[in-house]
Design goal:
single chain, 143 residues, alpha/beta, five-stranded mixed beta sheet, 5 strands, 45% helix, 18% strand, Cytidine_deaminase-like, metal-binding
Length: 143
């Protein structure tokens, strides 16, 4: 497993330890992490603070997203996929998409390379969370 998805997993675990949803994300440019984040919807009482949005906020204004890769422990939803497309991020690496299929087709249709690592650790983290907190999970994904 590479260091960047490991960093995203660490963010997800941090979010879970704070009482939140275990989804983490990192933004990488030139082989370095320039932003990290995790889902803080519960912690901040903010429905749009998904992991990828938190990560992009923490990266700050970087001018151009050319050459960046966004890592996320879970396939990005439409909100986060919209940010990917809007900012011109051309590569997304997701830990898994079995617990939530996300917006892969949307990103691909906008020229984003999407890689699903299908990692058991990421799937287990989400499956356990969803089993323990179904109302919270379904609130987050709008069902």
């Amino acid at each position: 497993m590479d260091e960047f998805i490991e960093a995203a997993i660490a963010q997800a675990k941090q979010g879970r330890s704070e009482g939140g949803i275990p989804i983490g994300s990192v933004l990488v440019k030139d082989g370095k992490i320039i932003g990290k984040g995790h889902n803080k919807r519960v912690q901040d009482g903010d429905p749009v603070t998904h992991a990828e949005i938190d990560c992009l906020r923490n990266a700050g204004r970087i001018g151009s997203y050319k050459g960046t890769t966004l890592y996320s422990t879970l396939m990005p939803c439409y909100l986060c996929a919209g940010a990917v497309v809007q900012f011109g991020i051309k590569k997304v690496i997701a830990g898994e998409s079995r617990t939530f299929p996300g917006a892969k087709d949307f990103m691909v249709s906008h020229g984003v390379e999407v890689i699903d690592l299908n990692l058991a650790e990421c799937e287990q983290m989400m499956s356990e969370f969803i089993d323990e907190n179904p109302e919270l999970w379904y609130e987050d994904i709008g069902k």
